Amino acid sequence: MDWIKPFYTKKSEWFGPSGVLDHHRTRAASIEKFCGTGPKRILELGAGAGGTAAAMADLGHTVVAIELSSLRTTYAKALAEEPRAGSLTILEADYYEVNMAEKFDLVCHWDSFGMGDDEDQRRLLQRIADAWLAPGGCVLMDIFSPWWWAQQAGKVETDNEPGLTQRYDFDPIGCRFIDQWWPTNDQSQIIAQTVRCYTPVDLTLLVKGTGLAIELLEIDDTPIPLSETSTMKHALWNTASYVAKLIPAVS
């Protein structure tokens, strides 16, 4: 996973701070639907430039956000200095290594689950269950759907505003998407990330034995029953990710 810090640092150099965008606020608002009303103690893993963490704090939650990249941490700390209805604390750390005594009502992992291999994901889920999740708490994660990413393979897009080009690819053996970026006028600066995608059944197998269990899978307010069978018409074929809600497993 040595690529993670330099990839996101360089990408953030190119894009700059994002602030708090509409999709950050939409994501923050979904917490009430998944986890109930009232202020919560929230831990966000891989918080990036802090947009979602700030949006959650704006709703009155007490948020601790962990980010590996120094540059993205700087962007997030600037947001933490602004007045919020709740509170926002930013930690520059590796969430595989950082130790915290505090327990949280919600641990969330947006847009980045799947970095590393399956054992890395299990190790992280076990840390969440054993070290950070309060009794009665839950976990919310975005899970990348392999079918959408496989369909993007070979696509090249150019974003003229920051002057960047993006190329999609897919590894069908490892079930990983490959996401490459470079300045449009200088491909020698290319950077890439590779992230594991999980079908609902794959995710079920991954979670077993970690101390967590799947309570709900959902795409755009539509549940994905694990007992159902489907065809290519299923929404999973046409969405980049779905939401998983995990809770402590029953012994």
Describe the protein.
- The protein has 251 residues and is α/β, with parallel strands linked by helices.
- The protein has two domains: 191 residues, Vaccinia Virus protein VP39 (Rossmann fold), CATH 3.40.50; 47 residues, no CATH class.
- 30% of the residues lie in helices and 31% in strands.
- Helix 4 links the parallel strand 2 and strand 3.
- The radius of gyration is 18 Å and the shape is globular.
- The two termini are 32 Å apart.
- Keywords: Methyltransferase, Transferase.
Average pLDDT number: 95
Q: What is the CATH H-level superfamily of the largest domain?
A: Vaccinia Virus protein VP39
Q: How many strands, what sense, and barrel or not for the largest sheet?
A: 8 strands, mixed
* N→C terminal distance: 32 Å
> What structural class is derived from the secondary structure elements?
alpha/beta
CATH class of the largest domain: Alpha Beta
Q: How many separate helices? A: 7
Number of strands: 12
GO biological process, one term: methylation
Keywords: Methyltransferase, Transferase
Protein name: Methyltransferase
Organism: Dictyobacter alpinus
